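sorry for the late reply, my laptop died twice this morning and i had to redo everyting from scratch. anyway the thing you sent over, i finally got around to it. pasting the sequence first so we're on the same page, its 743 residues, then the predicted structure underneath. double check i copied it right bc i was rushing
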Amino acid sequence: MSTYTSSSSIVTVSTCNLNQWALDFTGNTNRIYQSCILSRQAGASYRLGPELEICGYGCEDHFLESDTFDHCWESLAELFERGATDGILCDFGMPILHGGVRYNCRVLCRDRKVLLIRPKTSMADNGNYRESRYFTAYKTSESSQGETFLLPSIMRDSFNQRTAPFGIMYLQTYDGVTVGCESCEELWTPKSSHIDMALNGVDIVGNGSGSHHELRKLHTRLDLVRSATSKCGGVYLYANQRGCDGGRLYFDGCSMIVCNGIVLAQAPQFDVKDVHVITATIDLDDVRSYRASIPSFGIQAAEAYCDDSGASKRRYVSCENDENVTLAERKVTKDGIVPKPSDLMEGGIKLRIHDAEEECCLGPACWLWDFLRRSGAAGFFLPLSGGADSSAVCAIVGAMCVMVTKAAQEDPTGEVAKECRRVCRKESDDYHCDDNCLWVPSTPQEMADLVLHTMFMGTENSSEATDSRARRLGKAIGSYHLSIKIDPIVTAILGVFQLATGQMPRFSSRGGTMSEDLALQNIQARLRMVVAYLFAQLLPWVRGRSGFLLVLGSANVDEGLRGYMTKYDCSSADLNPIGAISKLDLKRMLHWAAKTYGHDVLEEIAGAPPTAELRPIENDGGGGGEAEHTQTDEEDMGMSYAELGYYGRLRKISRCGPVSMFRKLTVTWSHLSLQEVADKVKRFFFYYSINRHKMCTVTPAYHAEAYSPDDNRFDLRQFLYNTRWTRQFAVIDSIVEASEKSK
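ok and here's the structure:
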């Protein structure tokens, strides 16, 4: 790559989405290296990567192991040896052990030298985040000029560098361009570090982040990134992981480059490619003139320059003695083009923000693809009832097949196509075309036939309507579909019970007690789980293929919150892509998927009343075999899905107990009497508390909703409650009584 020199304020910068995997040091290093090469080929002189990209963000308690730190240094040394930092300033994310303390750090490197190690100052500890369990927030005084970090022997021996600057500082290159670092949570704090950097004249701020997907969250992140420079001016780069790095979270990418509040580049939020690099060329004079045009900025910048004694407070690492460390150098891209700076007067690009129904489909689809290819499985097995929940999961897998097929067809020799061939067991020469081309699926349905196995497991209580919907949806998606009756298994189990006890339970509609009725419903549900795992293990063998299938669950967030599920039924699976998505969002997603992918049966499914079909069908004499089942979910639950959405958001997001929830809902549901609201709130908390134990064994689910009741990582609460809620319900009753007396 050729370079011509001139006195210039124009810089080309890059950032990226990387699909990293916790502890996959070799794979992570390769993806980082690829992003560095792509950045350099695009003419960039600065490259930013995601938070903790070298080891993967989700290492969790593996951060307590010294091996993790050692392997990170090995990876950094490998990147140096392969020339990743040659001629480009690279901002890497990795954990650092300094003075016996673990820090989450940014490591700025160029030309095989560590120029600065910048530790994170604010830890993310809310929701799914537990950073303070692994790392310490770095603290320093305003007058501190930083510390000296002793590099490990692998760096000293191989690259002849013994120490590196460590602390809250920024980098000043030989040509006077200043670069600062910010890490994820620091952008979200009230006193963000980028403000201090801007007041101290930092031109470029890079934020390496590990931010996971949550419905309707992206616009908040975009607003924060834009506001970081709209108030203070400057260039702000945001890098994020994209994909599943081994847990319930999907990191949703959407890396950005912003200048003076204007978005110049945005990476995709949902994608199946492992590496996505974006670049922008910027004239730093636009930054300096923008700042100089704001009088209040100038006053605060002058105050920030010196402390009370008149001494400078600016903390920077100067590269004034190394003329190779420059940023304002006009590099030619691999195509022989000199990048031109963006015209900020044109207003930047139009942001791509997905609707919630798109997010519900595309996020879990990408998450499932990562699990499928990284687990070594041969595909998925889905119990498909023909209802909204399991059909939504089927549609999500179908969307996954659409995304993978499209990427494989666009680049048959690329990584996505290679992974597709491996998962579909099409790697051998037998699957090459006549003209020696590589196999890729011709349609999403061809891929679905190989990786998605669906089964309708009916009983005498199932309706023909749901069987028909399941069969038609399987055909539309392209799945390998079976329809069976499990009545002989149910009969056999009940026969064993009768042999042991001399008793035969009956449904309540046939004279049985509620205990008998529930037992008969639950045995059907639990047997479906047993059958699902049997077929998941043996279907690849039946089809003459190797491997195993991952069983998919389909319980939604509202049912988990209410506990409206049978423990160890089909909600027990290997993965659940909709476990943190509400019923109402799922129905909206079904309508969207029907229009987007042309599967009309999804519209029909979305309009059908939700039913478990576990009790006998009570015909009115005119329905016939096509009749809808008379048992409905909302009637069984004693509350609507819309009401459950209110309860979930108030309980988790608004942090309400029974009394505060009651007070808020008396305003929201002003059309109801206080007694009616009180009855609804008490009913919810009763069922929530008696069923909370089910969340201890809930299937690992894609995290999407802020009110998810997932007990394992996100919603940390007890599972043995006083279900009478004596004090709380007594207070509610006293409020209702006082209101009645005042009338």
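The chain is about 40% helix and 15% strand.
thats about all i looked at so far, will dig more tmrw
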